[in-house]
Each structure stands twice: as structure tokens, then as C-alpha cells.
């Protein structure tokens, strides 16, 4: 993250209605993998930091006695609350609107803290240290992300692949060549090097696993459009009065890429890094 970029509350403004439909799911075996790695028995407490609409937290809710999701976006918290009710787990879930840098002290302590592709948006040094303080002895921080080393392809699948390069080019035609992020820009993208941040905060590890996926997913034009509008760099508000025109052009591009209006995408593998509060 460049020093010039500052977080603001519009980072994911307007994306929450599109998030669950638009984003590709984590590997189906993720919950079972974490249950084994962390010896989860349904009784502990989980805090999911940067929870979005509850995608990760709700997929793990059956492994804990209580789940707390924290996110600064009002729309995300509303979506998580609705989905928890739909899944019948409102009684064991709590959704807190707050930045990770302002984690409320009244949340108590936790057995596990998860970051599902959210850590890079935060003041990482501060949040890592705060999270470690919130973990019980023997607790763990779990960093979860899509495996980015593989290049997905739709070759040999039923439908064409999503024309990602053309979609990106269209976004840049409307929003400019530099990646947008809230009210600012990220010319060099989001930061990496999480391992050193966690080590400096006092964590031990990591224990690393890759949960395989690779299933072929069928996606519609509406799914792909939702995926575009779920991203921080192409959030609906960034287009302003040109949003309607952008969506018309996007849908035209997608129809030209697939006569059936359907696409095949390979679900990415899920990468897991477990960082322990104490030496093991």
C-alpha cells in the first residue's frame, strides 16, 4: 500500500448486493480442513475481521459456539445479518460495524481470528498486534486467500471463459488506467509480505495448507456483472453518472464473448496460513 493512499468508507460502497453472487466461492473442503488443523469442536469463539457479507464466517459457524464478524461497511454488515437469519444462525452470530483498527475492547477474547482476503486493506502492523492480544492462549490467526499462482483456464470446458482481459480494459476505459480504491488510487496495488508482519507481531508459524478446488463453475452474464461490481476497483459508485452506460457496454462485451450467455470458470484452490499465538 502506498503511503499516499488512505482508507475511506467508500472503498466497498455499493458492492454488498453483488458480493455473494459475484465472487467465486472458497474450496468446498475449507471448513473440514480448518476443523482438523485447529481441532475445532463447536464450542470456541471466532472473530472474522473484514467479514464482508459473512461469506467466510457463516461457512465456519457450525464449528464454533459463537461467531463475531467485523467490517466497516454498513451494507456488508446488513447483508451478513440477513444471511445469518436465512441460515438460522442469528443466535450464535454477531455483526459489528467497525474498522479493524478500531476493534472494540468489549468483544472479549477468541480462540480463532480469520482474515479472508481482507488483511491487505488494513493498518497491518496495528491490526496484527491487536488481534494477537484478543486471542486466548493457544489461539490462532488464520489467513485465507485464493491461490494466485495458478492461471485459470476454461479450455476444454462446456462454455467459453470469462473474457477477463477485455473486462479489465473496459473498466480502465471508464475509470482510467490506474487502479481505483475508494476516493484514492493504488498504482502499485495492495501490499504483500504478510508473513513478516505476523512475525513482527509475535505470531509463530505458519502452518500452510492448500485446499484443492478446481471444479468447473457455470456462470451467467448476471454473475459476471455482479463480480465486476463486487470489486473495490470497479465499485458501482466509481462510475458516477456513467454507471448505466458502463453496464450496457459490459453486457454487450459478455454477450459477444458467449452466444449462450454462459461461461465456465475454474474455482480457485484456497490457500490457508495458520499463525499461532504461542510456540507449538
Automatic annotation (TrEMBL):
Residues 47-139 form the Methyltransferase domain. The keyword Zinc does not apply. Transmembrane segments: none annotated. InterPro entries: Diverse_substrate_MTase, Methyltransf_25, SAM-dependent_MTases_sf. Keywords: Methyltransferase, Transferase. GO terms for molecular function: methyltransferase activity. One of its GO terms (biological process) is methylation. This is Class I SAM-dependent methyltransferase.
Amino acid at each position: 500500500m502506498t503511503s499516499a493512499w488512505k482508507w475511506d468508507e467508500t472503498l466497498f460502497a455499493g458492492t454488498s448486493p453483488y458480493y455473494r453472487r459475484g465472487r467465486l466461492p472458497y474450496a468446498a473442503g475449507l471448513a473440514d480442513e480448518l476443523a482438523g488443523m485447529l481441532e475445532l469442536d463447536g464450542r470456541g469463539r471466532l472473530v472474522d475481521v473484514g467479514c464482508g457479507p459473512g461469506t467466510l464466517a457463516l461457512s465456519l459457524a457450525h464449528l464454533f459456539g459463537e461467531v463475531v464478524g467485523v467490517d466497516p461497511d454498513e451494507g456488508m454488515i446488513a447483508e451478513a445479518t440477513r444471511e445469518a437469519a436465512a441460515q438460522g444462525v442469528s443466535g450464535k452470530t454477531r455483526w459489528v460495524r467497525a474498522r479493524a483498527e478500531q476493534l472494540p475492547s468489549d468483544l472479549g477474547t477468541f480462540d480463532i481470528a480469520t482474515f479472508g482476503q481482507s488483511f491487505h486493506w488494513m493498518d497491518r502492523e496495528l491490526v496484527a498486534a491487536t488481534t494477537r492480544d484478543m486471542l486466548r492462549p493457544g489461539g490462532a490467526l488464520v489467513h485465507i486467500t485464493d491461490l494466485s499462482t495458478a492461471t485459470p483456464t476454461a479450455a476444454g470446458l462446456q462454455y467459453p471463459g470469462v473474457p477477463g482481459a477485455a473486462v479489465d480494459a473496459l473498466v480502465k476505459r471508464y475509470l482510467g488506467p490506474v487502479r481505483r480504491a475508494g476516493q484514492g488510487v493504488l498504482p502499485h496495488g495492495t501490499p504483500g509480505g504478510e508473513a513478516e508482519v505476523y512475525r513482527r507481531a509475535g505470531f509463530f508459524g505458519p502452518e500452510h495448507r492448500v485446499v484443492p478446488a478446481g471444479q468447473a463453475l457455470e456462470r451467467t452474464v448476471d454473475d459476471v456483472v455482479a463480480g465486476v461490481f463486487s470489486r473495490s476497483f470497479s465499485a458501482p459508485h466509481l462510475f458516477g453518472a456513467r454507471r448505466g452506460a458502463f453496464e450496457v457496454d459490459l453486457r454487450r462485451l459478455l454477450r459477444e464473448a458467449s452466444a449462450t450467455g454462459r461461461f465456465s470458470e475454474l474455482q480457485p484452490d484456497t490457500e490457508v496460513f495458520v499463525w499461532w499465538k504461542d510456540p507449538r
